[in-house]
Amino acid sequence: MIKKAFLSGAALAGLLTAPMAFAADLPSRKSPPAYAPPEPIFTWTGFYVGANQGLGGGVLDANVSLAGAGVLSNTQTTNRASGFLAGGEAGYDYQFSNNVVLGVETDMQWSDIQASHQATTWSSTGAAGSGNANIRNNLNWFGTTRLRFGYSFGRLLPYITGGVAYGEVAANGEQFVGGALFNGSATQTTVGWAAGAGLEYALSDNLSVRAEYIYIQLPGVNGPASGLTPPPFPPLTGSFSTGSFGAHLIRTGLNWKFGGPGSLSPNSALSLVTAPPTLDWTGFYVGVSGGYGGDRADAVVNLASALPAAASSTQTQNHSSGFLAGGQLGYNRQLSNHVVVGLETDAQWSGITASHQASSGPALTDIGNGLDWFGTTRARLGWASGSTLTYVTGGVAYGEVSARGLQISGGLFSGSATQTKAGWTIGGGVEYALSKNLSLKAEYLYVDFGGVSGSAYGVAPPPVQPFVGSFSTGHFGANVTRIGLNWRFCGQPAAPVMAKY
After folding, report:
1. Distance (Å, rounded) from C-alpha 174 to C-alpha 111?
2. Which of 38, 325, 399, 421 sits most deeply, having the most CB atoms within 10 A of its CB?
3. pLDDT tens for residues 179-208?
4. Is 127 helix (H, G, I), strand (E, B) or coil?
5. What sign has the CA pseudo-torsion 452, 454, 460, 465?
């Protein structure tokens, strides 16, 4: 009986468990996990258009040759050039599988780059001792068509570039001295070459920011020149010509690439401004920077002689330009998801100078003003969005300003001074975080310093007594465009923004 009961219980258990085992062997009715497509791989391939602005400058030489009945005259001058530029570009890039990027780009630029020298001299000895000079060389517009060769580090593209350059160069000059008037002008479109390098970073799949250095060189221009002299001297005729017009350009810009994976929606530009910061900008940082600067420098020289009683005053204006390089350190504090305040100080070596050299027969003129070094200490107020920090900045500036002048014309006249000056600065820029510690920035600053002053003297042939007096310069200012890299210590990703339900 016991055996039968055990067998009956086992059979019942088998009947109860059999359906469960059978059900376990059936295929599952649960939905498979959703398929997540891989993130599109960023590529630089595609057509693009963009806009840019910057600063340029260089050095330009000119030569004037005149001749009349038994009269020969030759004048050679050298002047600094500087000015702003702005324009647009269009191009196409192709990225190969090995990350090499090849492309072609063309651009057109409005240009304010000019070399000029204006001088007015008044003398109590009469019109024969007075004079006026106005010499100008302008790059009115230019364009380039260049190949680009780069290597893609993901969204960072360093590249070199080179090709042809073309533009309109104008030169003209008038000089009135000793009762004689000399004049000449020419405007020509010329073709030359361009070469440079740059960095471009993709803020999104379509929008990129760049910083670029380009050197362009265009042939000089030439034209007729004439001179009207008081009787009994004959009129003079001849020609003038300029040397090659070379300009160093530092410019920044934005490009929009069409198509490609992950094309942005129409409100992408707004999202780039309002997107939550992806890192906290709070922390100390150090960095290096370099760029180009220039503006205009004015000077006044007053001289007097006791016997015979004589006095003279000379006013001059010259353009300044030159490279600069240095370093900076500072501290940022991110107050909220977007607002950033900070303090930065920097020190820069400067090659920014204004100069005019001219020689005409036995006469020689050499005038120069320079910003040998400078530094700034500034507050920064910025807006953080994504990995971008856009900011305005201002504060104090300080630097060493030098001025010199030498003229040989019926005597020797000279003066010089070097002084450390304090002034002010204001500007703005954009900084982009390449990683939680490393960032790339492009910045514009205007720095303004008080002028310098010193004593001047003149020595003339006997019986004229020595001249004594003073010279002074106007405010020495410079428009500075520079790019740099910053390393921030203890950088951290931004705290996540909590969603509200």
Report:
1. 23
2. 399
3. 777 788 889 999 999 999 999 999 888 999
4. helix
5. positive
